[in-house]
Amino acid sequence: MRHALPLTLLLCSALLGGCASGPDDIAGTWINQNAIDAASDNGRLREALLAYGPTLEWRFAPQRHTAWSSNGVDVAEGHLAGSAERRWQVTFNRDLQESLVLDGDELVQQPSASAPEQRFVATAAADDELPGQTFEQALYAALLGGDWAIREGDGRDGQVRFHPDGRVEGLPGVEQYALCLSGDCATRSDEHELLWLQNAEQGREWLFRLEGDELSIFVADNQALHQELPQYRPGRRAWLLERD
What we know:
By secondary structure, the protein is mostly beta strands. The chain has two domains: 7-143; 146-243, no CATH class. It is built from three helices and 16 strands. The protein has helices at 33-42, 45-52, 133-144; strands spanning 28-31, 57-61, 66-70, 75-84, 87-92, 96-103, 106-109, 118-123, 147-152, 159-162, 168-169, 176-179, 193-199, 202-211, 214-222, 232-243. The strands form two sheets. An eight-stranded antiparallel barrel has the order 1-2-3-4-5-6-7-8. Helix 1 packs antiparallel against helix 2 and helix 1 (33-42) packs parallel to helix 3 (133-144). The longest helix is centred in the middle third of the chain and has 12 residues, at 133-144. The protein is elongated.
């Protein structure tokens, strides 16, 4: 569900110092909290990301004049420059530019040809987290956090917990999960959200629907012809989980 990141990005965490250290300093990690709140309010992840994205996280190392942005799949690295008080400019590939300004406690990404206005809040990030992981873990905690009881399906009456780092406890035959945030996977179902479930080295895509404190997980039936890109519709419901 996620592309491998370039090796150079593994070194960037040493340059990042957690949340912003002052009102005129954007150093550290900023996440798109509006997208997280919208997804957790109505359970419609893709709709929330389309409404408040596409940028989901920013990271800044002003002392190195470097910025990273993530859309949930890809990470872009750009040159960071201050243009005025509380204003910055990030240049990607010498031509694409994004303008940023601090508005109180929020960082505002100004409207551009590639994206609408987006707002971000500062948050702490672990030293070993790569760009995009802080948003992802905050989203996972908000959307699927808590204890879930299996009401239907294998392991009925058991307890399930989805951890923010992608681990799963209690769901039979599943050790890890990932949500589709953007990229090719987002085009594979018209209405339902995509969920990756994995055990050891084996995994596949499922569909899910989150309604309040009920989570339905469906077999993903591929309607596409051979050699076409997958197009999924919900098959049988494999699990119905209820949050305690």
